[in-house]
Amino acid sequence: MSENILIVHENKKARFDYTIVETYEAGLQLMGSEVKSLRNKDVQLKDSYISFKGDEAYLQNAHIAEYKASSYNNHVPERHRKLLMHRNELDEIFDALREKGYSCVPLKIYFKNGRAKLQIALVKGKKTHDKREAIKKRDVSDQIRSSLRRSR
To answer: Which long-range contacts (CB under 8 A, 24 or more apart) does 30-36 make?
Structure first.
């Protein structure tokens, strides 16, 4: 069975600011107008994060724009959205978040076989010198790639 994946938005800043420890796939509990906005790619994951209320995980600070063609029953753009995950995964993330230095952030939002999915990651914050190192590596690989293109 082949998987149809359509990436809606990727949180590139998260990969720069954090060291990714482990990734998970979660479903999202959405309203109809939110799904329509996602299909239009009207979403922003910057500065969003995963929090726990009781034993449930929620996506916070993610901005899904109101669907313009929707009527009076439109959604609130930055409401808390429940994540749909297996209990053992939720427990694993919750236990890790109690440890010092761990956070949980969304990496990307996409449609997989017609269903909205969110890739989340358990992360540790990078220090400033780690970020500088990432920039240096990226610059060196860009230079190598451009020199290889010129030599062809």
So the answer is: 30/64, 30/81, 30/116, 31/75, 32/70, 33/66, 33/67, 33/70, 33/73, 33/74, 33/75, 34/64, 34/67, 34/75, 34/81, 35/116, 36/67, 36/69, 36/70
Cβ contact 106:119 at 8 Å: yes
Q: What is the mean pLDDT of each run of 10 residues along the chain (152 residues)?
A: 79 85 91 84 88 91 82 75 93 88 90 91 80 80 83 71
Q: Tell me, what amino acid is at 110?
A: Y
